[in-house]
Amino acid sequence: MTPETLGRYQILGELGKGAMGVVFLARDPVIGRQVALKTFRLGYSADDEELAQFRARFLREAQSAGILNHPNIVTIHDVVDEGNGETCFIAMEYVKGTDLKQLMQRQKRLELPFVIDVVAQIADGLDYAHSKGVVHRDVKPANIILTAAKEVKITDFGIARVDASNLTTEGQLLGTPNYMAPEQIQGKDVDHRADLFSLGVMLYELLTTKKPFQGENLTVVTHRIVHDAFTPPDRYVADLPPAVLRILDKALQKDPAQRYQRGSEMARDLRAL
User: Fold this and answer.
1) Which of 47, 80, 205, 245 has the least CB density, counted as fewest CB within 10 Å?
2) How far apart are the C-alpha atoms of 31 and 64, rounded to whole Å?
3) Are the C-beta atoms of 185 and 222 separated by less than 8 Å?
4) How far apart are CA 123 and CA 115, in angstroms?
5) Phi, psi at residue 250, to the nearest 5°?
6) Separation between Cα atoms, residue 109 and residue 115, nearest integer Å
7) Distances from the Cα of 187 to the Cα of 171, 220, 250, 266, angstroms
């Protein structure tokens, strides 16, 4: 049942559901603007210590992401922990648009200039976040919103790390496996360059409608990400410029030191096409 209010926010409707909670459209009566509320339900099979760990991580990650202020990043307005053992939520900028996952499902093959513009905007947003010490850790099409004006908005900064608490399945990978960098899969230390690998996977998929590392199950996919070369994109698309292939090759390097070191570098190469 949808609540009428959360904190000071008036609930207008439900925008979607996730594994950890619900996203609501709401109104902030103090400022009079619409916001999206992303809730995190805590009241299930968790002991006091787990709840305390989750709450601490939630607040730390949400506050870290809350410092970000960039045209290509969904702005966080408020972080609320009601302290009742039930609900934490983030109030964020409400963006009208379509996420890239939905767009790809509808349109299949996308035009090259459109793909280049979208991915360059994502790289801009990531570069800014990385300059502030914030790593996304779950860059994927479902976390990229495209407005009617073709402006990109990255959402869910820090959320993957929040979901990595003991409330998740033991041993569960942090992030979405198809888009994860090799070092993420291997459980190694992860920095901003993992986000740029994930962006390379997205670029490949937007261009070809296929993922660069495929397999019949998760075990095969993750093994290929760590050990195998990606499937040559010209197997699916015959007319990609050589410069695009070079960008993909650099973004999808197994060794982070051989990848793009900054989002701005990747954006520059994309816009030079």
Assistant:
1) 47
2) 23
3) yes
4) 12
5) -75, -40
6) 10
7) 10, 17, 22, 25
**Taking 50 as the threshold, does the pLDDT of residue 100 lie above it?**
yes
User: Which amino acids are annotated catalytic?
Assistant: 138
The number of helix segments (H) and strand segments (E) in the chain equals: 9, 9
Q: Which domains does the chain have, with CATH numbers?
A: 5-93 (3.30.200.20), 98-271 (1.10.510.10)
Rounded distance, CA 247 to CA 75, Å?
A: 29
Quick: pLDDT tens for 43-64.
555 567 777 777 777 777 788 8
Whether 119 and 270 have beta carbons less than 8 Å apart is answered as: yes
**In contact, 159 and 38? CB cutoff 8 Å:** yes
Please tell me the predicted confidence (pLDDT) of residue 2.
74
How far apart are alpha carbons 94 and 145 in whole angstroms? 11
The answer to whether residues 176 and 218 touch, using CB atoms and an 8 Å cutoff, is no
Reduced to 3 states, what is the DSSP secondary structure of residue 154? strand
Query: How many Å separate Cα 64 from the centre of its chain?
Result: 15
How many residues in total does the chain contain?
A: 273
- Which residues lie closer than 8 Å to 195 by C-beta, 6 or more apart? 126, 130, 135, 136, 137, 139, 263
CA-based Rg of the chain, rounded to a whole angstrom? 19
CA–chain centroid gap for 250, Å, is 21
Minimum mean pLDDT range among 23-27, 139-143, 159-163: 159-163
176 contact partners, CB below 8 Å, separation of at least 6: 138, 140
Q: What is the mean pLDDT of residues 229-253?
A: 95
In sequence order, which residues have a C-beta less than 8 Å from that of residue 4 and are 6 or more positions away? 10, 11
Q: According to the model, what pLDDT value does residue 43 have?
A: 55
